[in-house]
Amino acid sequence: ASRPAAARTRTTCGYCGVGCSLEVATHDGEVTAVLPARDGPVNRGHACVKGRFAHGYLTSPERLTRPLLRRDGSLVTVGWDEALDHVARGLRAAMEAGGPDAVAAISSARATNEENYLVQKFMRVAIGTNSVDNCSRLCHSPSAAGLAASFGLPGGTDTFDDVERADCLLVVGANPVEAHPVIGARLLQRVLHGARLVVADPRSVGLAVHADVHLRPRPGTNVALFHGLAHIMLTEGMADEEFLRARATGLKELTDLLADYPPDRVAGITGVPAADLVAAARLYGRAEHPAIIYGLGVTEHLHGTDGVRSLANLAILRGAVGTDRGFGVSPLRGQNNVQGASDMGALPDVLPGYGKVTDPAVRARAEEVWGAPVPERPGLRIPQMFAAARAGALRALWVIGEDVCATDPDTNRVARALDACPLVVCNELFLSETARHADVVLPVASWLEKDGTFVNFDRRFQRVRPAVAPPGEARTDFDTVRSLATVMGVDLGCPTPADALAECGRLAPVFAGLSHDRLDREGAVPWPCPDPDRPGEAKLYTERFATPDGRAHLAAAPYLPPGEQPDDDYPLVLVTGRRWAHYNSGSMTRRGGNLALDPVDFLDLHPDDATRYGVRDGAQVTVESRYGRASLTARTSEQTVPGQVFCSFHFPASGVNRLTSDQADTVTSCPEYKVTAVRVAAL
Ligand code: SF4
């Protein structure tokens, strides 16, 4: 008998936002190994335990292989035709009862660019609403808003390849050693080759032991911290006055504000010693080529957008953005395609390429390409969708690749919203926490089973290619959207993912130079990329900023306290984050070998707090907040400081997001995951 041929497929990792290029070896239709591509443009032959080993979920017996429909309270297996007919009828009923805005969709980074493009087109063209959002609402929406306000575009300012040449790294609110290990290793290598390192993070994260200065601000005090650094830079003459005169605006207002942020006052707000503030400001402010890299510790706050803008102030003051001087401001995106999901217009206020839906010229261009009217009124953000469902105004919700009942804050309220919504449709790999509340569950392909592109954290488009076929009757999200549109009598066009990206380029000039063929030839291409014959822009703003006046905008936002404060009833502050072997809700990484690497969720607390609250290392504890209760295993750790506890969100069974606060960024509605007041008690 002839042996089936082994195959290798080049694709892009579907976990974190680094975007490692991977070679997937298959035999007889199954993945046998995943190896880092030696010529990967970002990873250069490296990968982490997630990309390399977390593929066992593909053949998990728990994979969904046929659609499920709720009948008499239970989810039962049905065929695709019946499932899609039910969804189509439910969407029509919702629209008859409440108009197009009674329907909403939540897309995600698990979907490719082409899938996100098609989802938002479906909502706008087939339904007639702008109520489509994606998971960036919960993580980096303040980056998009803040970076766009400061510089003009809602993405990082520089390519990571340039960051790697920096002589001073300011790493803020990020734990790349665990959350983005390939980048964490490259940063560490840079430090070992002489770059100075300032880490700002309440926890003693992996890079902190190598830092020249480790700033440990109280959670929720970032804006004061950044203003303190800016104050020192200005008063000690580290600002680039020529750059500020020629290319920035807002210096007078910021200077006036910073008078209130001398080191001693900032030390009182943040808990960071004034001497450390001065040392950090001098390292960043006197470096020849400084770079800022930041994560969710900056964005997931009540004033997350102010945090991003106040951090961006440092780069502007130093003239370290859009110049040879430095390497700007780079957000570390937690998820593979969270940048792309937003780029493709899966947002309630913008179309693909970030043109505002309220702008008649933007709508006119889309209407010409789509041949259909585009609704003008901005749609609902994710938290508003849940509120509308609880109020009875939202009557149908389609959730695509996002386990909102595990990863959104205050999940008890999210579950009540889903239960109140007459039709909840869920595209999923597994019977997730969200799928358990759905009326229809559509089985879909994972990133190793589909065709398209992702955009990584430094705006690079890369190809995603199917290494294996999806199991059973599972379909790609792309096929799901097209099939549903067909059942509803709507022709969405875009028969293939390549066609969808091409159409997106006709609608959004910043993507006009991109195509699957080009990416197949060149590997990775950053946007903006308006011309198929010219390279994309890796480093932004070298001639002018993309703001209306062409200048960088300094922000003068005062420090305001976080939404939650510890008190006698809830004396500890819970911070949530990521761990090295798992990804998001863990639905993929917990089904396979990575569970053995990191099998249990822990509540990390300082030994002093363990003593104070009578908690033994390894004991089960209950954790309570004003929102809910969770049960976890305690682990004493000096990574956290007294008064703070830390937990991941990779294990939905422990219910950590039942605890998290419903406070949200005042600009973007990004939840304040990083500050929840809790109490801990031994069981
Ligand atoms: Fe690379 Fe991130 Fe995937 Fe790890 S999870 S292999 S760092 S893209």
From TrEMBL:
It is an enzyme of class 1 (oxidoreductase). Residues 6-62 form the 4Fe-4S Mo/W bis-MGD-type domain. Its EC number is 1.17.1.9. One of its GO terms (molecular function) is formate dehydrogenase (NAD+) activity. Its cofactor is [2Fe-2S] cluster. Keywords: 2Fe-2S, 4Fe-4S, Iron, Iron-sulfur, Metal-binding, Oxidoreductase, Quinone, Repeat, Ubiquinone. In the C-terminal section; belongs to the prokaryotic molybdopterin-containing oxidoreductase family. NDH-1 shuttles electrons from NADH, via FMN and iron-sulfur (Fe-S) centers, to quinones in the respiratory chain. The immediate electron acceptor for the enzyme in this species is believed to be ubiquinone. Couples the redox reaction to proton translocation (for every two electrons transferred, four hydrogen ions are translocated across the cytoplasmic membrane), and thus conserves the redox energy in a proton gradient. This is Formate dehydrogenase subunit alpha. It comes from Streptomyces camelliae.
